[in-house]
Amino acid sequence: MIRKLTFGLTLSILAAGGAAADCAFENDVPIKVITSAFPAYKAIADNMQECGNVQVELDQEVRTKSAPALAADPALYHISSVHNGTIVPLLNEGTIRPLDELVAEFGQDLNPNQLIRIDGKIMAIAFMVNMQHLMYRKDIFDELGIEVPQNYDEVLAAAEKIEQAGVVDYPLGATWMADWNIGIDFNNLFVGYGGTFVNDDNTPAVDSEAGRKTLEMMKKLAAYMDPEYLVADATYVQQQFQLKKIAFSNFWASRAAKMDDPNESEVVGLVATAAAPAAEPGGIPAAMYSWDGFAIAKNISDEEAEAAFRVALEGGDAEMVEENNDLAIWLIDGFEPTEMADGAIATIENGAKPTPSTIWRGLINDAIEKNVVEFMTGKKTADETLADIEAAYTTSAKEAGLL
């Protein structure tokens, strides 16, 4: 069954309320947590651990590790970070529990847009929205007289001008590591070109003009990047910015604040954000947005689930936001958008689409990742790549009962 997710997104500027200095309750139930490893989750993890008896693993591979870990009985973790995509296999395997009763008892301070309802039940709590949007060295753009690119033709023109000036090692950066990272960037461009991943009957639709335009653009962009782009994850690109090696990138909003961290960055005050460029002039941004939050394992006791839920709420409370306002586009009371949030807000306002939460999305993503890498390394043509994506998806979709 394809589950449908309802998520009403509103970005609102809310006044910070009073916050306790520590956890609002003393936790005496051992709780294990696995979350993504970007800075916003590190802040949440620190707040969770104030409650006591909380062990947190920050792991960039939570996407692949949480599904089998929560399928164990008892589950290996009580809490897992989730987003639009990673929640799907957990739902399909029935390894996370509805949170309606816990929300009713303990979640009075949650905003409505934090409640992720699937088939009518609250299955996750969202803390933030995340997406890729434009980050650029405003000092370089000003020096060279470059306008902020509105579409990818302008991205290429800006990259060429920066390369000719020789002011950085590489004009562009991109999270194109040869795994889910490069798949996300293909997806963003593909949607920007008007592509549809599957038809109404769940048959694949990637082998299309939009698919060819996406691959062609990725080849053009690669010419302005570090030749080792297939090892470039978010931390790699973040450090390229911080060490003055690149001038701009369509990059994760959750990393924006680290550009101004004087403890690790040489570009403090030099990086600005803007809406993700459109794939084509006049189009929507070539970036999809998602929510990030947490889910609670099903295969644990009710006592553990209650403690886990309360710990998770403490992780994402107003105190945490007040102390870490710039680390994310928070959906939590107290968030006050700064200039570094401008790119994310503009991307949504310009018509960016939400990342779909469906069974087919995970299957098509798996097919895209491997085959796009082989295209970028010259092992496949564009036609072969798109045909192989559809063939791989078709096999998986039949196994999953979608076809």
What does this structure look like?
By secondary structure, the protein is an alpha/beta fold. The chain folds into 2 domains: 161 residues, Periplasmic binding protein-like II (D-Maltodextrin-Binding Protein, domain 2, 3-Layer(aba) Sandwich); 197 residues, Periplasmic binding protein-like II (D-Maltodextrin-Binding Protein, domain 2, 3-Layer(aba) Sandwich), CATH 3.40.190.10. It is 39% helix and 16% strand. Strands 1, 2, 3, 4, 5, 6, 11, 12 and 13 form a 9-stranded mixed sheet that branches. Strand 2, helix 1 and strand 3 form a beta-alpha-beta unit. Helix 7 packs across helix 8 and helix 7 packs across helix 13. The protein is globular and about 60 Å long. The N terminus is likely disordered.
